[in-house]
Amino acid sequence: MTSNRARLHPLPGQPASVPWPTREWPSRDPRNDPAVAHHRLAELLALPFGDDAPPELGLTHAVLVVHRGAIIGEAYGPGFLSDFEVLEGKVQEPVTADTSLISWSMAKSMLQAAIGVAVRDGRLDILTPPPVPEWSAAEDPRRTITWEHLLHMTSGLAWIEDYVDGAGSDVIEMLFGKGSDDMAAFAASFPPAAEPDTQFVYSSGTTNILARALQTVLGIGGDEAAMREFLTAELFGPLGMTTADPRFDPAGTFTASSYVYATTHDFARFGLLYLRGGTWDGRTIVTPEWVDHARTPIACDTLSCCGYGAHWWTHPDDLGTFGCHGYEGQRITLVPARDLLIVRLGKTTSPDDDLEEAPVDRYVDELIACFDA
What we know:
By secondary structure, this protein is an alpha+beta fold. It is built from eleven helices and twelve strands. The protein is globular and about 65 Å long.
């Protein structure tokens, strides 16, 4: 599989007149911007919360739109718990800008950023195999799997990622069943089903293997406190993501497949980091090359509507759109050609892995259409 970064859309810089939202997000009235169809934008922001809300969208918790570095619209709906959150014992509360919400698989993109910090500092080479003790035997064919393969979800490991039926689902067994005490070990125990770099198989287990390997490279192993400190010092802290709360399994590994809680504003801060090429207020968090690596689609025949980069999703349009996707329609969508960022959080019951465009993405596309170049 090959990549062609020459076709990537340039990423916009932060406007000189707009402060970085490390402490507080700047805002702007879209009615004063001729590039924004503000009437339509207002209608769309209200749409998921009204009586005529499209049923295929399910329940929407929050929608936030950032244009040219400033918030120009946000809306919040009633609280609701997913079945998985009920299992976690969470209590339903109304949603506001201060409500901490679940990332689901958007956390995968945050792990990609954390790995990018280590790459920035020369602590790992993604073209080499990661430290995975389950694959250490000389005759084990999995020893050839690299960080790159895992980031692209092309490791060749067997895996069933099924959130709906449950029966035979490896991801549910990992998160809530016999694999939950040590998720990386559970995922690393799976046999190869194909040669690396020949088949795309979306796998939350893959991400947790990467998380444990990163902690090994950092020299902190299963030390939850040390990994929290790393994430805060190198990623969440510099961006002002004060509500970011990563979760860990009993083995002390960051459950990067599924669990970062944060407010809508803080999820937007993470998105802005990548829309700005990995730099935040003059500080390089990850390199521009690492952001390009994230948004460069791999060549894979099994992907149609959306493509996949390195733990980030790519969109087949002329605007350079890419973003973070999560179960039940969690989205951080970045549109470089419009200097636009959209966060949508909620509970959409329609499967997001269909080959046809998901309902949430159709809604986000309508929001994007409100903006001119």
